[in-house]
Amino acid sequence: MKRPERVAVIGVGILGASVGWNLSRQGAKVVFIDAGQPGEGVTNWSFSWVNASNKTARKSYFDLNVAGMAAYRELAGAIGPDSWWYPGGHLRWADDPAAEAKFLKTAELLAGWDYRVEVYTGAEVRRRLEPALTVPDEVPVVFYPDEAWVHGRHLVGHLVSRAVASGAELRSGTAVRDIGTGADGSVRMVALSDGSSLDVNVVVNAAGPGASHVAGLIARHLPMRREPGVVTRIGCAQVPVHRAMHAPHIEIRPDADASVVLHSREIDALIDTGEDPAQLARLLHESAQRVVPELGNSRITQARVANRPIPADGFPSVGAVPSVPGYYEAISHSGITLGPVIGRLLASEILSGKRDEMLADFRPERFPP
Question: Hey, how many other C-beta atoms are within 10 angstroms of the C-beta on 79?
């Protein structure tokens, strides 16, 4: 396989930024293309929890996420943690016996897979980790000390600026209108909505929720789930929590800029009932106050409903599509956890032609053309 002459990375969220940064630092000519601004799409409207404890459906998927966690630690060492990397672990507890039994069983499974798990009582958690919580004294709380959260938009900014310093080009505020192929079916160019076109011989589809549309430009059918989620930011003078947590009915984590991020699968279920996003944000805020009473003094600053980029079977689609030489996909829910490891593995595949076994279960060809 000949070395790529110019790579167009379509979509500059965490996956696109990670792929492009890894390519550019190895000497590839990269052009980032985003219809909006880098890191301001679904990457900025994610719970942004770096973990493998929620990825036990398939051992290979768990292993990929563990590798993602390790890749973050390496990345923090390589570029500096700055304002984007927040290790400190993750807490989970429940308020009903069935949910409690389920997460404790998962914790036992994870411990058997050599994943670090600690179990405390609510009283111990308040004393040692999170004094602002209302978790009952005797409730078991699982603590995953190796997990973290990231500020996705800040990380994307760091990666893109480093790539640009290495010679990459950024085209933001313009969408891809077409992908041109040659007589042999291989990628030759991309046409942009601003009327310009770029000669390229590799395209990376990292377009997140728009990935199916981009795939359609090469006549590929990429089936995606529709799973919208609502995320709310709460402004507070002093952030009362120190790490990400799954409390009963609500997910809470700190955020940069004196704020807290809230999400709930239960509230997501109300999106298609026609509830106004502002009302959904109020419901999230009310749930959070029951867990962290200090958030009663906070205010809702932002709320957004975003479509998660999830291929139809729930697993990532990463790698080459053999029927269109030069076309690659980097599409995944949990892109926050997987961004750095997918960026490294896919960049290596593009540059060397060698397919890493870690991605074997997540190849795009499992979806028929």
Answer: 15
